[in-house]
Amino acid sequence: MLVPSTGRRSVETTEKSTTRGANPMKRTIYSLLAGMTLLSLGTMVQADEGMYAVTVTNLTRGETFTPIMVATHKKGTHVFNLGQPASPELAAIAEGGDFGPLSTQLLDSGVAYDVASNGGLLAPGASTTIMVKTADDFRHVTVTSMLIPTNDAFIAVNGIKGPKKKKHSRVVMSPTYDAGSEPNDELCANMPGPVCGGEGGSPNAGGEGYVHIHAGIHGIGDLSSADFDWRNPSARIVIKRMK
Question: Which residues neighbour 143 within 8 Å (Cβ) at sequence distance 6 or greater?
C-alpha cells in the first residue's frame, strides 16, 4: 500500500529511464525500450543525501529480466501483498515490463525519493548495477522486473530497509512471483520480448486474482519447460551504501 506524503522526488538511471508518460502496458518490450528517455524531477539535494548501488543478478537459466526499476522511499510502502490482488501498476510490470505507471505513482504520491533503472534487458547469468539516491527518511528500497517470456511473472524486493552506514550491504534472494492478473497460457502472442515478440497483456480475462509464488513454465503453450522453466531463487539483489 502506498502512503501519501510530501518529499523531494527525482528520477535517474545509470543508462536510460522512464517515468511520466509511460508506454501502454500492451506494447512489446521493444517499444518500451525504444520509448525510454532521460528525465529529471526536482533539483534540491538534501543535506543527508546518500547513494545505494543496487546489483541485480539473474539466476535463471532461460529467462530474461526486463528493465529493472529501483526506488528509494519512505517506510511502510509496499507495491504488493502476497495473497492480495495486484494493483494495475504492478500488473503493468508483470505483464508487459512497463514500470512507468508504478514509477509515476510512487513519485506523485510523495513517498519516493528516487526512481532509477538499468534501461535494458538482463540475460540469464548476467548482473547489472543501478545507482539510486537515498536520504534518512527514504532508506527503504523496492526493486522489480518482469521475467520474459512469461505471462505475468516478476521478481521483486518489496520495500526493505537499506543499510545506513557507508560500504555496508544487504543481500536479498528473490523468488519469482505471479501477479495473478493474466492466465498462464504460455502463448507467445501474449508474451513480449525477443523470444516471443508478443504483446504484454492477455486479451482473456482471468488469472488467479492474487499475487503468489509462480509455478514456473509447464510447456502447455508455445514454450518448452526444458528451456524456460526455473527454480527459486530467481534473482540475487545486493544493496550497498556508497555514501
Answer: 54, 56, 68, 69, 70, 71, 155, 156, 157, 174, 237
List, in order, residues 6 or more apart from 133 with CB less than 8 Å away.
10, 12, 49, 50, 51, 52, 72, 113, 114
**Residue 198 falls within a domain, yes or no?**
yes
Residue 2 covered by a domain:
no
Domain containing residue 180: CATH number: 2.60.40.2130
Q: Report the amino acid identity of residue 65.
A: F
pLDDT tens, position by position, for the chain (243 residues)? 453 333 333 333 333 333 333 444 444 454 455 444 333 333 355 658 999 999 999 999 999 999 999 999 999 999 999 999 999 999 999 999 999 999 999 999 999 999 999 999 999 999 999 999 999 999 999 999 999 999 999 999 999 999 999 999 999 999 999 999 999 999 999 999 999 999 887 666 678 999 999 999 999 999 999 999 999 999 999 999 999
DSSP, res 222? S
Q: What is the pTM of this model?
A: 0.84
Q: Residue 84's domain spans which residues? A: 10-241
Answer for the pair 157, 136: CB distance below 8 angstroms, yes or no.
no
Q: How many domains does the chain have?
A: 1
Residue 84 covered by a domain:
yes
Chain centroid to CA 149: 15
Residue 176 phi/psi, 5° resolution?
-95, 130
Within-domain flag for 117: yes
